[in-house]
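Follow-up to my post from last week.
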Amino acid sequence: DVKVTQSSRYLVKRTGEKVFLECVQDMDHENMFWYRQDPGLGLRLIYFSYDVKMKEKGDIPEGYSVSREKKERFSLILESASTNQTSMYLCASSFQGHYGYTFGSGTRLTVV
Amino acid sequence: QKEVEQNSGPLSVPEGAIASLNCTYSDRGSQSFFWYRQYSGKSPELIMSIYSNGDKEDGRFTAQLNKASQYVSLLIRDSQPSDSATYLCAVRGTSGSRLTFGEGTQLTVNP
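User reply:
Got it. Predicted complex:
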């Protein structure tokens, strides 16, 4: 069974902390994505990557960075966590071309 | 205008009825269209993809695409309480592999 695995289901962090969210896929997908999902705002794209060491800004990249050192792993980094980054974070991956995404189970991050 | 718009919910149907979920998109060059189901507190799950005009059926689900009208829909026949979820429409436009999602329509199927 194909999988996208997010390292944590729930996280609580303090304001100002550096936060790492990890995502690993075992499907040899080229594309990987990070979204956040908030009530009333839907899914918003933070960053995505088409290949190892490549990254592209999405719609809301401010306050975030990413790392993709290996094809299967895509990390989201909150440089200095703030309360407005409290959200559900969803990682997804796909093959190049006209394919849908497979999502991970999500990480619910609370910044206090 | 939003890039992908879904009919506002919530939508409530009785068990056994047909649920109809609608979506319009603004990028006329879009080629790939997807429906995701998301249960409360869970991540989205791909249930249908459609690429050509017309209907595509998979069990109780039928996706319909009309590129001229920039419209895609999902019909759920014989709706079950287990179909109660938020349904997300997603469109791949002309700008690469990223999908643009609608805000979702919450469906409740009443026993």
